[in-house]
Amino acid sequence: MSDDRLIVALDVPNALSGLQLTEKLGDAVSFYKIGLGMLTGGGMALANELKEEHGKRIFLDMKLFDIGATVEAAVRGLAQFNLDFLTVHGDPHVVRAAKEGAAGKDLKILGVTILTSLDRADLDASLIKPGDMQELVLERAAKALEAGADGVIASPQEAALIRALPEAEGRLIVTPGVRPAGAALGDQKRVATPASALADGADHIVVGRPIWQAEDPRNAAEAVLNEIKSI
Ligand code: C5P
């Protein structure tokens, strides 16, 4: 009963516990996100094993940012592996370079707009122009998509606004910050349920702790799949 609109974040301490978690989830989950914490501890090997031996789809959450030539080279290297999604910061020069690096491959480049952990005070501290956060997220999303991003990462609370952008036509919206009703929020603030994120126009939802910290992760994943079945 897997449904690749659900992406499970493998934010566990190392590749071995990542593999054990995927074994528990079995055929219920077909798409995994591997982030920087895991990547520095054997995550690429795990990504390749899950893809090549278990037929899973893989989202590498690397949030790359550098000069164009370096981003292009980094993405060209990653694009040799048969993976599915890669995040870069949504700055137009980064997105353009990443798309060059991925040319001719199936790897989809997703632009990060503004990290959901940042608030307006953080943006001021980083000398980001004044303005309402949501407006800036929308502007950043439009710029990343204009630069050729295959999609963007957004909070589910921004999904509907981004979906309405003309630039978003045919592009992906992937939303972390998703919590089944009643689940602990952890450090996530701007959350929505799986069903409402998808109803608002997200193509994929990323769910981490509510699944991997659950006593029975497979049950927790199946509850999410059940919730989104009719959307
Ligand atoms: O455990 P939880 O469901 O909050 O995990 C969400 C995942 O999505 C984490 O891996 C986190 O790093 C990632 N993420 C996020 N917000 C973003 C981008 C990625 O929470 N803006």
Structure explained in plain terms:
With 231 residues, the protein is α/β, with parallel strands linked by helices. The chain is 42% helix and 16% strand. It has eleven helices and eight strands. Strands 1-2-3-4-5-6-7-8 form an eight-stranded parallel beta barrel, surrounded by five helices. α1 (15-25) packs parallel to α3 and α4 (68-78) packs parallel to α5. It starts with 5 loop residues before the first strand and ends with a helix. Cytidine-5'-monophosphate (C5P) binds at residues 9, 11, 35, 115-116, 153, 176-177, 186, 188, 206-209.
Order of helices and strands: EHEHHEHEHEHHEHEHEHH
Ligand list: cytidine-5'-monophosphate
Percentage of residues in helical conformation: 40-55%
Strand content: 15-25%
Outline: globular
Q: Please provide the count of β strands.
A: 8
Count of separate DSSP helical elements: 11
Low-confidence runs of at least 5 consecutive residues: none
**Which strand order does the major sheet show?**
1-2-3-4-5-6-7-8
| Biggest beta sheet summary | 8 strands, parallel, barrel
What is the end-to-end distance?
15 Å
Mean pLDDT: 95
Rg computed from alpha carbons, rounded to a whole number of angstroms: 17 Å
- Alpha-beta content class: alpha/beta
